[in-house]
Automatic annotation (TrEMBL):
Domain of life: Bacteria
Pfam families hit by this protein: Tad
InterPro entries the UniProt entry points to: Rv3654c-like (IPR021202), Tad_N (IPR028087)
Organism encoding this protein: Nocardioides koreensis
Name of the protein in question: Putative Flp pilus-assembly TadG-like N-terminal domain-containing protein
């Protein structure tokens, strides 16, 4: 081994560790976004079912949907009721890492078969 090549493996190892850390951080952000989107979709589905179920009864069906959305960590953005068919849109806080400021939304529709 030449004296000029001494320590060159250290640079390669440091570069590989840096790439692995960057890749791990990117996968963490993507995983958090997927989890938040799944939570938003679940909250939207449950809120739409609550609105459609409460459509024929007393009280405000959209208030029932807002309560279900809030119980699932989401905020009800819109609630449309046509007959007994409900369409809702909810939003959940997304991952706020490295300056990202994106909340994730989902929409769902429920009604009689």
């Amino acid at each position: 081994m030449n004296r000029s090549e001494r320590g060159s493996v250290s640079l390669v190892v440091v570069a590989c560790v840096g790439v692995l850390l960057l890749l791990g951080a990117a996968l963490g952000v993507v995983g958090a976004m997927v989890r938040a989107h799944r939570a938003a979709q679940a909250a939207a589905d449950l809120a739409a079912l609550a609105v459609a179920s409460a459509a024929g009864g007393a009280g405000d069906p959209c208030a029932a949907g807002a309560g279900i959305a809030a119980a699932n960590g989401a905020r009800l953005l819109s609630c449309d009721l046509e007959g007994r068919t409900a369409t809702v849109r909810v939003e959940v806080p997304g991952p706020h890492w490295l300056g990202q400021d994106a909340d994730l939304g989902a929409e769902a529709r429920a009604g009689p078969a």
